[in-house]
Amino acid sequence: MKRLVTFAACAALPLSLLLACQPKPPANPAKYNTEALDLKAFMANVVDPNSDALWAASGTVETAAGVKDNTPTTEAGWQAMQSQAAVLIEAGNALQLPGRPRAPEADFYKFAQQLTAQSILLKAAVDKRDKDAIYTEGAKLYLVCTACHAEYLIGPLVKAGGRPAGTLQDWPADIAAKQQQYLAAHPEAAQQKVAHVPQPDDPK
Fold this sequence. Notes:
Number of strands: 2
Order of helices and strands: HHHEEHHHHH
Largest sheet: 2 strands, antiparallel
Radius of gyration: 26 Å
Strand content: under 5%
Helix content: 55-70%
Shape: extended
Oligomer: single chain
């Protein structure tokens, strides 16, 4: 009934006013660009650094000096965590834009939506500054990430017989130097190759 009344009112107007009754297309239609950051670059520059930072700011770590609490101690630290969680919330949305999902797309959408859902819970814990909840929700986020990687990264690499050489980053220079120092001081370890960390793509 409301539509009929509106139509009748517009029909009784002069042509110039009648045109004003017509819906106008948006002046700036939505556009998106997923080519500037392909999936690999998006993960490396958006998802990975923000998730890593969140995990690094939760829980505890045992050091020679004792147990260190990673929880932020400054307002800036808490705000950084809030921003990182917010980025991951939107990252789950952005991963579903045309051009990014990988087959099977239904699984990819599921993981992207879980990324957003879990990041919402993690941000809520950060907002409350509940360090126990931050650790718990962060662990659940980690499970979402590893499950997705298992299907879309590790699984395909294993099925293909291993990754092409050079597609993963080498050890950081300082870690590599420490490995060399250890092997120099423990030649028996070098012979047994105990310093090597097994990788999914190691030759069988």
